[in-house]
Amino acid sequence: MVATDSLLMALSNLDALPGQETQVQRALQETIEGPNRKDTFGNVYFGDLEAKKKKVALYAHMDEVGFFVHRITEDGFVYFYPIGGWWGHVVLGQQVRATCRKNGAVLEGVVGTLPKASHNMNDVVSISEMYIDFGVHSKAELEAAGLQIGDMILPNTQAKKSFNQEKVIGKALDNRVACTIMAQVKNRVQTKKIELIGVATVQEEAGTRGSKVAASQVDGDVNIVIDVANGKDTPKAAEVPNRIQGDGPGLVLADKTALGNLKLLDYCREIAEKKNIPWQYDLLGGGGTDAGSVQLFAGKPTLVVCIPVRYCHSWNSIVKISDIEATIELLSAVVRSFDEGGIDFEQF
User: Fold this and answer.
1) pLDDT tens-digit map of 35-80
2) How far is CA 287 from CA 14, 70, 81, 254, 255, in A?
3) pTM of the predicted structure, to 2 decimals
4) Torsion sign across C-alpha atoms 185, 191, 193, 194
C-alpha cells in the first residue's frame, strides 16, 4: 500500500486544469483497487454503481486552479486566462509549465509583465496584463514545439516535505489532498452490507460542474464531500484563529452552496470522539464545494469534511500530514460503522 505522504506528493506533481484532468484520472485508476469507470464528462467512479445495497459516496475533485493559453503574440509572448480564483500578487514572476495537448510536450516559462509608468507599486497587477516568456523569439517557434490556444498552464513546482517531515508543501493540494484521502479509504476499507463508492469529479474549480453530472450517476444514500480550505491559523489571517492545522478535519456546518446535514455531522463527531480522532467544527463562508450539486440532486444526507491547508490557490500550499491521516481514520471508521452496525440511513 502506498504511503499517504508519497501518494499526495505524486498527485500534487500532476497537472489537471478543469476540463483537462487526464493525468489525475489515470493515476487514481492505477492507485485505487477494484472496478472503476469514467463517464463521458470525465468523472471517475470507483465501486459498483449498480449495486442494490445502500451506497455511501466519497467525493473528491481532481482539478486545480490554473490557466490556459489565450493568445500568442508574433514575437512569442503568451497571454493567459485564469480558471478558478487567483490573486495577481501570487502570479507575477513565477515559473510555469504549459502542457501541449497536441504532443504532450511540456514547456517551461516565467510570468512577466511590461512595467507601466501609471502603475502604483502598491497595486495588484491585473492578470490580463501579464504574459509568459518561454525564452523564444517567435510564435512560430512555440507552435513548432506544439503549443496551441487552450493548452493548460500550471505552476512549475515539485512537492516536498517540510524539513521537520510533518507537512507537505506543493501545488494543487486543493484538491489532491481529498483525492489522496478518498483513495486510501477505498483501498483500506472492505464492506459487505453497503457499497462504498469513490467519486473523482472534474471541473469543480469551474463551477462544480462535474458533480452535477456525477450526483445522478451515483445517487448515494449518504454523501461525504472531501475538500480543503485556507487555514486561519497564520498571522493576521483571522481575528479568531480557526481551521487550525494539527486539530484534525473540519466537520462543515455550511458552505456557500450547501448546509451540512447536522445529524450526519453529529454521527461523525461521536465516532471521532469515541476513537480519539482529532476534529474541529468548520464553516466555509467564502466558497462552495461539490456538496451543493450532490445535496440538491435528491436531497440525500450530505456533509463536507474539510482539511486545513495554508495558501490555497497559490504556487505552494502547505498541509499537515497528521490532519490527512486523521481524516482517513475518521472516514474509515464512519464507513465501517455503517457497514457493521446495520445503520438505518433514514435517521439522517
Assistant:
1) 999 999 999 999 999 999 999 999 999 999 999 999 999 999 999 9
2) 24, 26, 21, 10, 6
3) 0.95
4) positive
